[in-house]
Amino acid sequence: MGSDSEINEFLPLREVVFLTLRKAILKGELQPGERLMEIALANRLGVSRTPVREAIRMLEHEGLVVMKPRRGAQVAKITEQELNDVLEVRKSLEMLAANKACERMTEEDMKAMRDAGAEFRKLALNPNCDLTALTEADVAFHDTIYRGTRNRRLNQILANLREQMYRFRLEYLKDASIRESLVSEHEEIMKAVAGRDGELAADLIGEHIDNQQKVIHASIASMEGES
Fold first, then answer.
1. Rounded CA gap, 134 and 183, in Å?
2. What are the pLDDT digits (tens) for 120-152?
3. Exposure string over 3-25, b if 16+ CB within 10 A, otherwise e
4. Which residues pair with 214 in a beta bridge?
5. Are 145 and 193 in contact (CB under 8 A)?
6. Measured between alpha carbons, how far is 121 from 67 in angstroms, rounded to an integer?
7. Is 195 exposed, middle or buried (0-12, 13-18, 19+ CB in 10 A)?
8. What are phi and psi of 128, to 5 degrees?
9. Burial category of 142 from C-beta neighbours within 10 Å (exposed 0-12, middle 13-18, buried 19 and up)
10. What is the rounded end-to-end Cα distance, in angstroms, of the chain?
11. Residue 208 three-state SS
C-alpha cells in the first residue's frame, strides 16, 4: 500500500491518506479485523501521525473502521446487515440495468461484453489465478452491461456502489469451488442480453446476486464461528 498517483495531489493531506486507506480496505489490502497502527501507517505513507489519525476518524464515520477498547482502530468486519443493505440496492439497480441494456446495447457493446466474459472465464478456471485480477475481471464484465444502458445517471450510481461491493466480491471469489458456476451464470446472462430478452436477463442477474449473497452469508457465519 502506498500513495495513489490517481488521487488528486491538491487535496488536503488527510483526504489523501483517507482515500488511500479506504481503497486499501475496500480492495482487501487491509483485512477485516486488522489493527491500524498510526505510527506504522504514517511511516508507510511518508506522512506524520496527524493526517493518519484524522483519516482513521473519517473511516470510522464511514463504518469501515471500528475503535476497540485497549486495542485502538481496526478494519471493520463484514457484517450481514451491511451485506444485505448493499446487495439489496445492487440487485434492484442491476436488474434495471440488464433490462435497459437489452434494449440499447450496440453490436460493439455486445462484443465488449463477450470479451469481458471470456477474460473472466479464463481467469476463473485457472486455479492459480490472481484474486485481485479475477475481481477486476468480474467488475469489468458487469460494467459492460451498465455502459450498455446509455443511462449516465444509472452508471454514476452503480459506480459508487461498485466501491462498496469490492469487499464482498473479494470474499465471494475467494471460494474456488463456486467459480465454475459463476462462469456459467455469466454465460447465461450474456445469452439473454444478446437475445435482447430483458425480462430473462433481469431475472438471471437477480439470481446471480442472490447466489452471491448466500455464499458470503456462509463465509461470514464461518468467520464468526472461528472468532
1. 12
2. 999 999 999 999 899 999 999 999 999 999 999
3. eeeeeeeeeeebbbbbbbbbbbb
4. none
5. yes
6. 40
7. exposed
8. -105, 20
9. buried
10. 27
11. helix
